[in-house]
Request: fold
Amino acid sequence: METIIKKINREKLKKEDFAEAVDILRSGGLVAFPTETVYGLGGNALDKSASAKIYAAKGRPSDNPLIVHIADKDALSGLAEEIPLMAWECAKYFWPGPLTMILKKKPVVPDSTTGGLPTVAIRMPSDAVARMLIAESGLYIAAPSANASGRPSTTRAEHVYKDLAGRIGLILDGGETTIGLESTILDLSGEKPVILRPGYLSREDLLPILPDVEYDPAVIAKTMQKDIVAKAPGMKYRHYAPKGNLTIYEGEQKAVVAAVNRAVEEKMGEGYTCAVLATEETKGAYTCPVVKSIGGRAQEEIIAARLFDVLRSFDDGGVEYIFSESFPDGNLGPAIMNRLLKAAGYQVIYVGAE
Ligand code: AMP
Ligand code: MG
Reply:
């Protein structure tokens, strides 16, 4: 199958630009499109064969459910039942935006879309291209991140092309995504609200509306926890991983630099290609020939937006060992570190001060 990239002019959104995508979606096919978080791989959420195509294109395990994207808040009642008041409150405050809510599903939502779960994940994106596509199609759009399963999510159309060319017909190119990390997943199907995946919206952002919201213990763990089972099925898989072996170094800045420089020297001595994921403050202190700065240590939004692109760029350079700093614990800290830890398969080296 030939994969076409169609550029969308955000300054002037025209219905005609979406006509082909809408045709594909209505006839049960797949279209990749930008959202404010990452690119999504969309198909008709109520068509089980479209969901099956999504799993096949990504190579995604079929027990890992899809997020259903909607273009207006009222669509919630078309997909979910026993919707608690707090879900409507969250919709009012956080939609459109990077919040996914888990609710009890209506029978109309096929098991293949929810990975066999009795609940459904729903999000109303704010991105104008995503919204126009969903609205024009007149469908609910199931869309996981548009990457090959296990790889870093995609924040640019070229990333999607690299992972999925030949497997899907059309990619709508709306430029680089603004947030760059996936949505916050909030489970509202139980007694208490629980964050199953940290995202752009932190627990602190949700507290004014949900005073008793908590993180699921599995999502803030800094090590792989065998006794804690992630409630979002997707969170249990190795994820976001570059091809090279990634290790995170945590500790006092100078000690981290020294330890990374030693590790690089050792691996380069063995003939491996190495790279360092650094910050503006530290980039000059590394001896490795390839050092990528992701941004200033305090610039969380930039770190979040660039993380997947930087991880992918190491693959393009054929890097075999990647050494990364750990990032600060601000509002986006849990979301950034959750992705980085998974990308590293939880390989963290703690270094003391020297
Ligand atoms: P992605 O769209 O690729 O970011 O993946 C969707 C994420 O949402 C995965 O981690 C899923 O496991 C999670 N998810 C989707 N539906 C549900 C659900 N009904 N219950 C719990 N987690 C879900
Ligand atoms: Mg994903």
Observations:
- The two ends are 56 Å apart (CA to CA).
- Residues 144-145, 153 surround magnesium ion (ligand 2) (CB under 6 Å).
